[in-house]
Amino acid sequence: MRIVEWNCRMALHRKLWYLNGLNPDIAVVPECAEKLPNQTEHDFSFAWKGRNSNKGIGVLGFNGWAVEEITYGPQLPWVLPVRVSYLGQHAFNILAVWTVVRKEISTLSYPQQISELLETWSGTLAEGNTFLVGDFNCSIQGPSAKPHQKNLDRLKELGMASAYHYALEVEHGDEPERTLRWIGPGKVEYRYNCDFIFVPKSRLPGIEARVEPLWSGENPKLSDHQPVVADLL
To answer: pTM to 2 decimals?
Structure first.
């Protein structure tokens, strides 16, 4: 089973060809629109959440994998809880996340939103059948390093690990690739690792993961984020 996380930077309907080329079974896509006109053509299951129909967080299921929004239980505006099934049988759940600091969504900082997510869903995550996938918008490389590290420590306590960091045997902050390329004031470029696929430790044996090198490919301007890909047994 392959999980892909990719902040597509909007207009996913024009970029589905690229996502399909990554051969995902499940894809978590921040910054995608509520309506994807190519759903029938590309044959995928789709769940979405957001306050703006042009920009929210989507989860797509392919190849017999289906996704359905979980509408019961705790809800946070920056989290899309999803039930994942394969050929009609429940397999696991995903908490798809895209943190956004905007008054109609949340006034909490990016790491504070992750902290609230972990507090709200701690019991569910500790049960060992829920993945946490998305764009955290915080990393060890940025100004949110200390609160982000506290969230990483809490995830470890809950029995969760980053697929990419486990597979490559690297610590957070020592990654050879970055997932976000951000151009700051004065056109200074900054690179961060803020996109993650966290899985229960029981799912780690045999896992493979990578950051897909979008920026060095033929279409470097598709997004300012590079995809994270994880293959699980």
So the answer is: 0.96
Backbone φ and ψ of 60, nearest 5°: -120, 140
Which is nearest to 28 in space by CA: 86, 99, 88, 80?
80
pLDDT tens column, 154-170: 999 999 999 999 999 99
1-24 residue pLDDT tens? 999 999 999 999 999 999 999 999
Domain spanning 2-231 has what CATH number?
Answer: 3.60.10.10
Distance from C-alpha of 25 to C-alpha of 202, rounded to nearest angstrom:
20
Rounded CA separation 58/34 (Å): 8
Domain boundaries, the chain: 2-231
CA dist 207 and 85 (Å) reads: 20
Residue among 155, 168, 169, 164 nearest 197 (CA): 164
Contact (CB, 8 A) for 205 and 164? no
